[in-house]
Amino acid sequence: MKRVFLFSALVLGSFLGLKAQNVDVNKPQMSESVGMVPIQKGNWMVGGSLGSMGYSFEGESFNVNINPRAGYFVSDGIAIGLSLNGGFQSVKDADDIWTYGVAPFVRYFFPEGSSATGRFFGQGEVGIAGANNGSDVTFAAGVGLGYAHFITRSVALEAVVGYNYSKANNASAQAQNGLGFNLGFQIYLPGQGNR
């Protein structure tokens, strides 16, 4: 009888001990209510597209790019900055091409359609680009529409759909244009007056 009582007391004590710990398993954070805080005047944004893919209509080529970028909010919801480009292009019936470029950009966050955890934005950039195959420096421009979903107060995941145009800097060059889709992230850093 002593053994049954001792065993029952041990099981009951273990159950109550586990219940008292009340183990709370944290779920990964998927969104944060941020409002206008990350995109206020004086803040910075740093990040870029980790991978973007596109298809050119004229050259029948496929490309993959990495685009780091940094910007400064000159006004609430308006950022200007610099975007770098590094990429790989596979052209049908030709050698592969490594590309590079630099372009200033402007980004505008739309107040319409925004939520507490995300914002739509439009972006435009104009710059120069080049390639390892010895071609001339080209004029490059692009516009895009995207959505930033804030997973924390200072980090947002982004998806951008856009149109790109480029033309080599010589008289016989043909213009290249195409559609692109980018996935990436941005880190929003508070400025001096916004801490």
Describe, in plain words, how this protein is organized in 3D.
The protein is mainly beta. It has one domain (37-194): Porin (Beta Barrel), CATH 2.40.160.20. Helix content is 10%, strand content 57%. The chain has one helix and eight strands. Strands 1-2-3-4-5-6-7-8 form an eight-stranded antiparallel β-barrel. The longest helix is centred in the first third of the chain and has 20 residues, at 2-21.
Task: Give a quick rundown of the structure.
This protein is mainly β and 195 residues long.
CATH architecture level-2 label? Beta Barrel
- Bin the strand percentage: over 45%
Number of domains: 1
**Quaternary organization:** single chain
- CATH fold topology: Porin
What distance separates the N and C termini? 68 Å
> Average pLDDT, to the nearest integer?
81
Question: Mind telling me the C-alpha Rg?
Answer: 25 Å
Query: What portion of residues is helical?
Result: 10-25%
Q: List low-pLDDT spans.
A: none
Number of strands: 8
Strand order of the largest sheet: 1-2-3-4-5-6-7-8
CATH class: Mainly Beta
> Which structural class should the secondary elements be placed in?
mainly beta
Give the H and E element order: HEEEEEEEE
Count of separate DSSP helical elements:
1
Describe the biggest sheet? 8 strands, antiparallel, barrel
Principal-axis shape equals elongated
Organism: Olivibacter oleidegradans
Signal peptide: 1-20
InterPro entries: OMP/PagP_B-barrel
Protein name: Outer membrane protein beta-barrel domain-containing protein
